[in-house]
Amino acid sequence: MKNSVILPSAIQICVDDVGWFTGADSRYASRPSRTGMTRNHVPEDYIALNEVGKAIGQKITCPLVIGEWDKDNILRGEIGPTYQPKTWDRASTLDMKLAEKCFEAAESSDYIEYAYHGVLHGNYDEKGRQITEQECFYYKNPGDKLLSILSEDEIAHRFELFFKIYDGWGFKKKIQTHAAPNSMPHNISAEEAQPLVNVLKKHGINYWVNGWRRFTGKQETGHTEFIDGILYMEKGTGNKIPWNACDVDPLLTEDCAKEGDEKIGIIFNSHWPNYLRYHKEYNLERVENWKKFFERQSEIFGLMVSKDIEFAGNQCIYRNYSTVETEKNVIKIDVTKAASISPKHTFGEFYVSLKNNLVPKEVKGGTIEVYTTHKDFKTYKVKHTDNIINIMLY
After folding, report:
1. Residue 165: phi, psi to the nearest 5?
2. For a Cys staple, 306 with which of 27, 111, 312, 345, CB 3.0–4.6 Å?
3. Residue 316 burial by Cβ neighbours in a 10 Å radius (0-12, 13-18, 19+)
4. Separation between Cα atoms, residue 301 and residue 113, nearest integer Å
């Protein structure tokens, strides 16, 4: 019976690098990699994300790069955040009609949820040369190739610039997730990241997603932890789509996991081009295939599709901090630690998948109802009134 019960991982899509107008990778010129597309971005690209989210019923986490939205030249004279510290003049090059259409497409979407990604996806020297794409870091000793974190004041200033541009446009969506550009330096510990953590907390950031912690120790796929009260969830579900690939057919890609995997990811790491076509007119042609792809994932015992970052975080906590025991016709789920570790991240409910041979008869310590039905199993929503839930089976 043990192998017929699981608290599934709720897969949450993260789409990095939303917000660029220019697509081209300009690292050859010591500038940002951007999205890597060989065309510029248009309102239809935001509409594509909206339609994918609508098709699968999920608010997609979209780490936003804000610098090219700088209609008021807020970044002029800023050393560090921009590759043109003295001559920055986005106001003269920004196509306002195009930008307003992009703004409307993004802001009107019920399925695009912004996350903080950065100002211009990097740290630049006084001449505008890129030091690193990891925006809040620099080389204290360039020879050792190990990055150090900027001071809290320097990081706070970058966030201030980001939100000046954000607010200047009238963006209204609450940003509650952070995704550092180009991941986090693998040599940086959670303790060393405290200056960044302090700034995140000041801005009400409750969630943090990156590919980072699995490279700093023994943590693995699906790793989660609390970093000074912020829920950190490791990116990575086995997705190997190249970061700059457009015209992708998701039905040809590998699954996020297979039944029986001990470690299952949470955050489906992807980039904006992966959902787009080179010819914008065909953007929506892949929406149905993305829907089928995530339907295929939801048929894997141990996976489900999240509704948004809060849903994913809640299920992640219950999955990682609860215990499940089976004996005869009873499933005992102890959520004592999950329910108490961070009340602001949990909602008194979680999801459990049972193979079809296990049918709930009654529940003590909460209520249970069918959430989704699949070929070999059902996923149930459990609302608990106690920290010990006993599910009696027929």
Report:
1. -70, -45
2. 312
3. buried
4. 28
Best CA proximity match to 379, nearest among 346, 345, 356: 356
Q: How far apart are CA 151 and CA 113, in angstroms?
A: 28
State whether CATH 3.20.20 applies to domain 12-309: yes
Partners of 63 in the β-ladder? 115
Strands 130-132, 230-234: pairing kind: unpaired
Per-domain boundaries in the chain? 12-309, 322-393
Q: Which residues of the chain have pLDDT under 70?
A: 214-219
Structure letter (DSSP) for residue 79: B
Q: Tokens 């809040």 map to which residue? A: 136
pLDDT of residue 213: 73
H or E element that contains 378: strand 377-384
Q: How many of the other CB atoms lie within 10 Å of CB of 187?
A: 14
**Nearest CA-CA partner of 83 in 138, 3, 29, 159:** 29
| DSSP strand pairing (9-16 vs 267-271) | parallel
Q: Which residue has the tokens 């446009």?
A: 169
SS3 6: strand
Whole-angstrom CA distances from 190 to 148, 185, 223, 230, 338 are 13, 11, 14, 11, 22
Enter the tokens of residue 338: 């999950």
What is the token pair recorded at 142? 């360039």
Cβ atoms within 10 A of the Cβ of 330, count? Answer: 14
Helix axes 43-56, 287-298, angle to 10 degrees: 30
Instruction: Output the pLDDT for position 289.
Output: 99
The β-bridge partners of 149 are: 137
pLDDT of residue 153: 99
Q: Which structure tokens are listed for 145?
A: 């190739």
How many residues in total does the chain contain? Answer: 394
| pTM of this prediction exceeds 0.90 | yes
Cα separation, 85 vs 68, whole angstroms: 14
- Distance between CA 211 and CA 234 in Å, rounded? 6
